[in-house]
Specification:
Blueprint (H helix, E strand, L loop, with lengths): L1 H9 L9 H11 L8 H34 L2
Keywords: Membrane, Transmembrane, Transmembrane helix
Amino acid sequence: MDKDLDALLGAPLLAPPDDFGERVMRRIGRLPPPARRSGGLAKLGELALLAGGIAGAAQLAAFMFGIWAAASAG
């Protein structure tokens, strides 16, 4: 099995067709635009982001207070 793997790794890589990039870009252009979320679901996402930011800021403040308390105790 190791010899087969070594042979595969030693073989030259496959080259993509010449028009590969153009075909991919054409297919991407035909894709429908992403759907926007409804108002309630978007508001819920914004609320979750805000809550996470507040929790993160509180954790950062507690961490900084701990560093300050340990540094000033000496």
